[in-house]
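Lab notebook, design round three. We kept the backbone fixed and only want residue identities now. Task for the bench partner: fill in a sequence for the structure below.
Input structure tokens:
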């Protein structure tokens, strides 16, 4: 297979997020860089895990691109969301970018982080101004942490949870959690109780229980059954209260196209680098934007060389072509 497609733009979408409403995405990294390599990651395996914060892009450029996109969009955006194809807090300029987007646009700003660097005071400080922060709690034990999140070797679950707890006490915005349940990995009754206990300690405004719905990094990853999910949500509700637990078990709805980008293929590439899109939605977008028929739209995707079509369950997705 050829080389991965290079995508330059930092702003993508907007998409209908199942948690945030209409969300305009910001990819503040330059490639898949993360502290974890989760088995279910929709951005693929992490080539080399890192704990080093660094400058990925000119932060003024990132802020200006968000301002420009918001100015040109015809739909109302609920959140500008830092959600790259990796861990957003690895960006040493994140605090500046969050604060400047808030100051110059007045938009609400969300950061979707795995929370693995919140034991660092500088990372907690960078997130304090955000309107909403989402952190990941997929496990309650070291053993399952290593199996599902496959973290950098210097991270331990106790260190990560301690950081998340510190942040939960300092942060005055809206804190939510994401828990991805994977069949045979973190779905034992004992682990679910530990996850529930960790959630109770963190005390999120809302705990989202999720399942893999897009092509995962590892082919064997499967969602638990619907019946199990209902039982899991019941158990977690015993710790948090029913109104704070929300089950998300399907792909979100049709995105509010047109997307941000320099033409339809660039905008699809920006989006599907982070967020694989249902093939149906991708075709509809091209049909509308390029004024062609559905067959022609499929030909454009397949012949561009920039994308791959991947099946997960019964659904086909389009994503930017990757190495390997
Ligand atoms: S799911 Fe998030 S935390 Fe996990 S490897 Fe992918 S980008 Fe990193």
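Proposed sequence:
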């Amino acid at each position: 297979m050829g080389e991965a497609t290079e995508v330059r733009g930092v702003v993508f979408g907007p998409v209908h997020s199942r948690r945030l409403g209409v969300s305009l995405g910001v990819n503040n990294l330059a490639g898949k860089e993360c502290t974890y390599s989760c088995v279910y990651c929709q951005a693929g395996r992490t080539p080399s895990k890192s704990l080093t914060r660094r400058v990925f892009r000119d932060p003024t450029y990132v802020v200006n691109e968000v301002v420009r996109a918001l100015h040109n969009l015809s739909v109302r955006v609920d959140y500008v969301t830092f959600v790259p194809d990796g861990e957003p807090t690895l960006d040493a300029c994140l605090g500046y970018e969050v604060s400047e987007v808030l100051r110059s646009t007045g938009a609400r700003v969300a950061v979707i982080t795995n929370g693995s660097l919140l034991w660092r005071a500088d990372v907690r400080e960078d997130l304090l101004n955000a309107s909403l922060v989402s952190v990941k709690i997929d496990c309650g034990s070291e053993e399952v942490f290593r199996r599902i999140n496959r973290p950098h070797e210097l991270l331990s679950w106790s260190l990560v949870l301690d950081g998340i707890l510190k942040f939960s006490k300092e942060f005055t915005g809206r804190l939510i959690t994401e828990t991805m349940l994977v069949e045979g990995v973190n779905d034992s009754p004992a682990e679910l109780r530990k996850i529930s206990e960790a959630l109770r300690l963190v005390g999120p405004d809302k705990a989202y229980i999720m399942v893999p719905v897009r092509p995962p990094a590892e082919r064997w990853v499967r969602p638990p059954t619907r019946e199990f999910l209902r039982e899991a949500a019941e158990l977690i509700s015993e710790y948090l209260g029913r109104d704070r637990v929300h089950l998300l078990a399907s792909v979100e709805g049709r995105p509010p196209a047109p997307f941000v980008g320099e033409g339809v293929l660039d905008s699809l590439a920006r989006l599907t680098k982070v967020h694989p899109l249902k093939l149906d939605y991708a075709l509809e977008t091209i049909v509308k934007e390029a004024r062609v028929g559905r067959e022609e739209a499929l030909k454009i995707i397949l012949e561009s060389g920039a994308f791959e079509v991947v099946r997960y369950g019964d659904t086909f997705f389009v994503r930017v072509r990757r190495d390997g």
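Keep this in mind before ordering anything: The mean pLDDT is 94.
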